[in-house]
Specification:
single chain, mainly alpha, two-stranded antiparallel sheet, two-stranded antiparallel ribbon
Length: 372
């Protein structure tokens, strides 16, 4: 997002859709069914858990900061009961998360080695101390980043005490089980975000978890739900007393809109349908990618084979040329050697003939002298 877009979003959030005096600029109003009422109250799980391991994807309803500003201005003069809708939305979401947590606990109970009650109590003591250390360490890091050094140092001293207790608890747990079993990772499920935590996780890993966006996001959702249940639950009963069904109320334009449980069911069906479509599209994309990669590998293989064949032919031709050159060089060398041998033989023959002639002349002169 550019700086210009950021400034525009800030102005929309502060002044709403009519910040430039254009009342008809936005065709969508905050009270339309396609606008996310949980977003208007700042508690939509799609927004809070974005870019986390449990990213829900894009919300099927409209999110717009300008519409939130319009709602905040309009809610000063009229009650729209959107907190009831947000409460029901978060209740359904948290109920689904709790079901996942229970299912994860059941899987761990089936897969992990069953411990005795005494050993399980000691393991739980280690887990609880580790979680407390992780939470305090994450909080101390946040305070340090915020400049509250004294509070951060105070928490660090408490963390040192908890670490000493954890070491003692680990020794008791280690002495209660065999050495081979101690090396096995004992997991438990985080009650807030359903993530797995290990008994051998170090403090840094636990601090990263408890200070991470996923855990803090679930914590914010649960805290917002507890706050809404205190304020919106009596208002929901008030709606029922007035003869309206859950979530039905007049939007000021002569029509009633349903934003309660049925809307959540419709939203859930839309999410399931969207997830199935995404999964099908992802499967199709994977199959298409596999086919493309297969074709690409075949093309590369054929190209490598053709190149290898061309290289082999080139090497064969070069080898043949080299052999021809070697034969020519050997032939020339043999010819030169034979020619040199013939010349040497001729020279030797001439030399022998000259020597014989000299000896003959010398004998002839000797005989001539003797006759005299």
């Amino acid at each position: 997002m550019t700086a210009h877009d950021q400034m525009r979003a800030m102005l929309d959030q502060l002044m709403g859709t009519a910040r430039n005096g254009e009342t008809n600029r936005f065709s969508t109003k905050f009270y339309d069914n396609k606008v996310c009422k949980s977003f208007l109250l700042g508690c939509c799980p799609h927004e809070i858990l974005a870019s986390t391991r449990m990213d829900l994807g894009e919300c099927p309803k409209v999110h717009d900061l300008a519409l939130r500003a319009d709602f905040e201005n309009a809610s000063k003069s009229k009650d729209y009961y959107y907190d009831v809708d947000a409460m029901e939305h978060l209740q359904a979401f948290i109920a689904d998360c709790d079901r996942r947590t229970e299912a994860a606990k059941k899987r761990l109970a089936e897969t992990q080695e069953e411990l005795t009650a005494e050993v399980a109590a000691k393991a739980n003591a280690v887990h609880e101390l580790a979680e407390e250390i992780g939470k305090k360490l994450a909080k101390a890091e946040a305070l340090g980043e915020a400049g509250q050094v004294e509070e951060s140092m105070k928490l660090m001293s408490e963390i040192d005490e908890l670490r000493a207790k954890k070491i003692k608890a680990e020794q008791e747990y280690r002495s209660a089980i065999p050495a081979s079993s101690y090396q096995q990772q004992k997991l438990r499920v985080c009650e807030v975000c359903s993530a797995y935590l290990g008994i051998h996780d170090n403090d840094v890993r636990l601090a990263d978890h408890f200070g991470g966006k996923l855990h803090l996001g679930f914590l914010a959702i649960r805290e917002k739900l507890a706050e809404l249940e205190k304020t919106a639950l009596p208002r929901q009963k008030e709606l029922r007393k007035n003869g309206r069904r859950d979530g039905d109320f007049d939007d000021g334009r002569g029509r009633s809109r349903f934003v309660g449980g049925r809307e959540l069911d419709r939203r859930s069906r839309a999410l399931v349908t969207r997830d199935l479509d995404r999964r099908d599209n992802a499967d199709d994309s994977k199959k298409l990618d596999v086919r493309r990669r297969s074709k690409s590998r075949e093309r590369r293989s054929k190209s490598r084979d053709r190149k290898s064949e061309r290289d082999r032919d080139t090497r064969d031709r070069e080898r043949d040329r080299e052999r021809e050159r070697d034969r020519d060089r050997n032939r020339d060398r043999d010819r030169d050697r034979d020619r040199n041998r013939d010349r040497e033989r001729d020279r030797d023959r001439d030399r022998d003939r000259d020597n014989r002639d000299r000896r003959r002349r010398s004998r002839s002169r000797s005989r001539e002298r003797s006759r005299r």
